[in-house]
Write a structure and sequence with these properties.
The protein is mostly helical. 87% of the residues lie in helices and 0% in strands. The protein has five helices and no strands.
Length: 129
Amino acid sequence: MSVTSTNEGKKWIQASLAISCIFLGYVIISFFEKMAEWFLLESKIPYFIVFSNVIGVVVGLATYVLILRNPISSNFLADVYQEMIKVVWPDRNQTWKYTVLIMIGVTIMGFVFGFFDFGANFLLGLINK
């Protein structure tokens, strides 16, 4: 477990929140572009592209500011960061071991479901004849 300062934690929280808000703005801009494509809004509304980009940026910035200014959400994010510091991540060998075990388990379950599917299809084929 590493000991970190509150400033370092604050930087990580702000950086992750900024990335999330940038993604939110991108999603909103993409949504407006799809709406424009579906309903031909670019020809009906002048400066629609500028309007949609401004809305995406404003929503992203407003979300960032509102979350940072709200003490409840800020405390929640600080608590999440403090708990994430305590997480003990597996080393490389454990990761490979668990990955192989999961792949084997998924393969076995795939064969089991495939067997049941084949059996059900065979029985339904006998009934339909």
